[in-house]
Amino acid sequence: MDFMQALQARESCRAYQDKPVSREQLLKIVEAGRLSPSGCNAQPWKFIIIDEPEAKAKMSDALVVEGGATGCPWRDSVPAFIALVEQPAKVMPAVKEYYGDTQRFAQGDIGMAAMNMCYEAMDLGLSTCVLGMCDQAKMEQYFGVPEGHEVRMVLAVGYSAEDKEPRAKVRKPLEEVCSFNKW
Fold this sequence. Notes:
The chain is α+β, with helices and mostly antiparallel strands. The chain has seven helices and four strands, in the order H-H-E-H-E-H-H-E-H-E-H. The protein starts with a helix and ends in a 6-residue tail after the last helix.
């Protein structure tokens, strides 16, 4: 499958088989994230793999925020999770001076890492879903995330329980999102 075919085929998975994901596979996925580009090569990330039953139960709880909202009602069926945590970035002095901030690129960098990880998982025959909602205080309590290190997203990882053709992507037309040389 070429890359454009992979882009068309990859979709978020919300139903997983009751089948474990090996640590070898999880480490390959994290390696794909680690090799991602980042502004000033800052690599402002830490990846926490959650694959043991007790830790997965804590993650299931952490994916429910105050008030009971969750972006992952099927969380108890996920074989493994990978939390992507923002780390303090070391950027070039000119970048810090210009923006007054060392974290200017960090969230985009983490997004690039997440996509590399999703496509590596796909290459390994696994499915993923990017989860953007979690309780930061619970992540700190359960997984030792230091205060001030934001969990930017969590990847659900496992074998899809559905064997179906990917649905057609619904995207804005290219002409609406792209132009040459001016707005």
